[in-house]
Design brief:
Elements (H helix, E strand, L loop, with lengths): L1 H13 L6 H19 L17 E2 L22 H9 L2 H4 L3 E6 L6 H7 L4 H8 L16 E6 L5 E9 L2 E7 L5 E7 L3 E10 L4 H7 L4 H11 L14 E11 L2 E15 L2 E9 L5 E4 L19 E4 L2 E5 L6 E4 L2 E4 L5 E3 L4 E8 L5 E7 L3 E8 L1 E2 L8 E2 L4 E4 L10 E8 L2 E3 L1 H4 L14 H20 L1 H7 L7
Antiparallel strand pairs: 1-2, 2-3, 3-4, 4-5, 5-6, 7-8, 8-9, 9-10, 10-11, 12-15, 13-14, 15-23, 16-22, 17-18, 17-21, 18-19, 19-23, 20-22, 23-24
Helix pairs in contact: 1-8, 7-8, 10-11
Bound molecules: zinc ion.
């Protein structure tokens, strides 16, 4: 499930678009038109072929050049001379223009190393990183980010673009006072609606696969309906689901799936409808048409597991030793490294070694609830005592530290200090908050659009095929 989780994280990263659907659609036309204007290269900016050089060099092209994401190879061996030799190949007119080189951040990199590879000095590092509060992005560079340097003919840094993703970058631009202005640039992808449906005769994931539904979308569906359906135990032959979701395209290319807008799940004859809604605070959640959250305050299983290797029991008398050996949690067998997520919002109260628990994370959820996650191989970035976590945040990774015979997550659930069976307590747990009464008119107005859209598709399949892009209905 590692790949799925990575995909999911990537989507989370690419898709934090909290603009209301309607609003976003309204903006889309304008944004897309602007993008096209930006992307059409003007006749002045001729891009030289990268001639096998390790740094891609070009005349002063738009920062949004479509070839920005060409893979770079062997940056290590990129001698600074490359810049000079390539410049001499440019004609007179381009020689006076700036040159732009792109360096990819690799594991173990730091700013000085990267600047050095681009032919810049420690003084440049100092000036750029002290240019304003947004410069703190330079302290959070992850492998895969790209840095595009524009250096003028006096070997002076004119512009630095920190490219986080095709959709997000930071632009540092030298101003008249010899300081850098910083702009946070975010691009809007083109949003294409998709409709898919599938019937289940074995598992959700196999059904989704047959229906041409990506693993990422399937994970989202499992997450959305996880509060009402246990996909490991409750799915039955004859169950079915449908989903209206978004795909993100940039410059005509698919870059990932966006949010699920509305989904329906029929489980053992019962119908559930979940609609995406962005509330007045900008928080996104899924609700039924009456405005009740689809989500429980806790998710059922904090890890994608292969099987439950040991169930909860408080008083199991050992037949020979006549001693009581309790197992105060659920053991989820899963490969080492599988992400473990917080089952509910809360605050970390323990994140270190603890005897036979091995690496342990404990989360306090409000006054009454506490969850424990044991035998972790490692902790997720930023998880330490006092840190706040949201439901679904990765807090660590499955391992076999402490008294574990094989890799698994030992998960405990406590209410008012006493252990409860995590598997059965779930149905008694409170729901996440509903849409507040005063916000209901807004909720109904926005969700009605989605419901109408979905009803149109499900009740008139031939019409749907004509109104949605090709291949969207399978
Ligand atoms: Zn256990």
């Amino acid at each position: 499930m590692n790949l799925i989780d990575l995909t999911k994280q990537l989507i989370k990263k690419l898709a934090p678009n909290d603009l209301p659907y309607k609003h976003r659609n309204a903006c889309l036309g304008l944004v897309f038109t602007l993008l096209i204007l930006v992307l059409v290269p003007d006749s002045e900016s001729i891009v030289p072929e990268p001639q096998n050089h390790d740094l891609i060099l070009r005349a002063n092209t738009s920062p949004f050049s479509t070839s920005t994401f060409d893979p770079l190879k062997n940056i290590d061996e990129a001698p600074v001379e490359n810049i000079i030799s390539t410049e001499t190949e440019l004609d007179e007119q381009e020689k006076i223009q700036d040159s732009r080189s792109i360096v990819e951040v690799r594991s173990g990199d730091n700013l000085s190393l990267i600047f050095d590879r681009a032919g810049l000095t420690p003084q440049d590092v100092y000036r750029v990183s002290n240019s304003g509060s947004d410069a703190s992005i330079l302290t959070r560079l992850y492998p895969g980010y790209k840095l595009a340097f524009t250096i003028n003919e006096e070997k002076k840094l004119n512009e630095l673009e920190v490219i986080i993703s095709p959709l997000e970058s930071y632009l540092f631009k030298l101003n008249a006072t010899n300081k850098f202005d910083i702009a946070h640039v975010e691009r809007e992808p083109q949003i294409i609606p998709r409709y898919k449906e599938a019937a289940i005769d074995d598992s959700l994931f196999l059904a989704a696969q047959r229906g041409g539904i990506s693993a990422a979308v399937t994970m989202e569906i499992a997450g959305i309906f996880g509060g009402v359906v246990d996909f490991m135990l409750d799915t039955r032959e004859g169950d079915s689901f449908n989903v209206l979701y978004e795909e993100r395209h940039l410059d005509g290319e698919f870059i990932g799936t966006g949010a699920i807008q509305v989904a329906q799940y029929t489980n053992q004859g019962e119908n559930y409808t979940a609609i995406r809604y962005v509330n007045l605070n900008g928080d996104v959640d899924y609700y039924n048409p009456q405005g009740e959250s689809m989500r429980k305050a806790f998710i059922r299983n904090p890890v994608d597991f292969t099987r439950i290797s040991s169930n909860f029991t408080l008083s199991r008398r050992h037949p020979i030793l006549n001693t009581i050996r309790a197992h105060k949690g659920t053991d989820y067998a899963a490969p080492t490294g599988t992400p473990v997520v917080a089952s509910g919002d809360g605050r970390v109260t323990w994140a270190s070694r603890n005897g036979s628990f091995g690496n342990l994370v404990v989360i306090q959820h409000g006054e009454r609830f506490e969850t424990k996650y044991a035998h972790l191989s490692s902790y997720a970035r930023g998880v330490r005592v006092g840190s706040r976590v949201k439901q679904g945040d990765v807090i660590g990774y499955v391992g076999s530290t402490g008294g574990a015979t094989g890799p698994h997550l030992h998960y405990e659930f406590l209410i008012d200090g006493s252990h409860r069976n995590p598997r059965t307590v779930h149905d008694q747990l409170p729901k996440a908050e509903s849409v507040p009464a005063e916000e209901m008119p807004r909720f109904l107005q926005q969700t009605q659009i989605l419901l109408t859209q979905l009803n149109t598709i499900t009740s008139a399949p031939t019409l749907a095929q004509n109104t949605l892009p090709a291949n969207s209905r399978e």
